[in-house]
Design a protein that fits this description.
By secondary structure, this protein is α+β, with helices and mostly antiparallel strands. Helix content is about 25%, strand content about 35%. The longest helix is centred in the N-terminal third of the chain and has 12 residues. The protein binds coenzyme A.
């Protein structure tokens, strides 16, 4: 674990450049434009959170809260800060913001073994498969049940 202060908060317009740059770095030809991320800030069902380490941008997570599901659309951690549980904290943050949502659902490329390991470590399991879902890859559908206290 990093011996530093990790803070997760709602993203603001001023964070979009960092988010877009990290998205381009890790998702290459599948990256979103900064306009796409900016649009998310105004959607009432969308939540975009950023992680910071001592005020340095460390990663983000984007999800839609629709009916009883949280759809995890994107998550990325700055490479130098990966494997320090920041991704885990970002997913936990989504769960902490759940209202009536009963599960988190997502799609992941079947070639992205590190992300599949990551989600599995958090208790997600595979519920489906979509052939040729991405331009070059198939998608695995995963979900995790949210256990609300009370
Ligand atoms: C996936 C990602 C967000 C994980 O973030 P992270 O902060 O590094 O993850 P964590 O430190 O919370 O990892 C928790 C556990 O997940 C698993 N895991 C995470 N990254 C892994 C990797 N590269 N290889 C294998 N297992 C991994 C491990 O079990 C890890 O626990 P451990 O470090 O004690 O072994 C990060 O690797 C990333 O940004 N990848 C590029 C973008 C991406 O692929 N996003 C998902 C698209 S669907």
């Amino acid at each position: 674990m990093l011996n530093k202060n990790i803070l997760i908060r709602k993203a603001h317009y001023q964070d979009i450049a960092d988010i877009g740059a990290l998205d381009a770095l890790v998702f290459h030809e599948n990256a979103w434009s900064t306009e796409n991320f900016t649009r998310e800030l105004s959607l009432h069902f969308s939540r975009l959170f950023v992680a910071g380490i001592d005020k340095q941008f460390a990663g983000f997570i984007l999800a839609w809260y629709i009916a009883d599901e949280i759809q995890l659309l994107r998550i990325a951690v700055v490479p130098q800060f990966q494997r320090h549980k920041i991704g885990t904290m970002l997913v936990q943050h989504l769960i902490n913001h759940a209202d009536n949502q009963k599960k988190i659902v997502l799609e992941v490329a079947d070639t992205n073994s590190s992300a599949i390991n990551f989600y599995t470590s958090l208790g997600f399991y595979s519920v489906g498969f979509r052939k040729d879902y991405y331009r070059f890859d198939n998608a695995i559908l995963m979900e995790k049940i949210i256990h609300h206290e009370n």
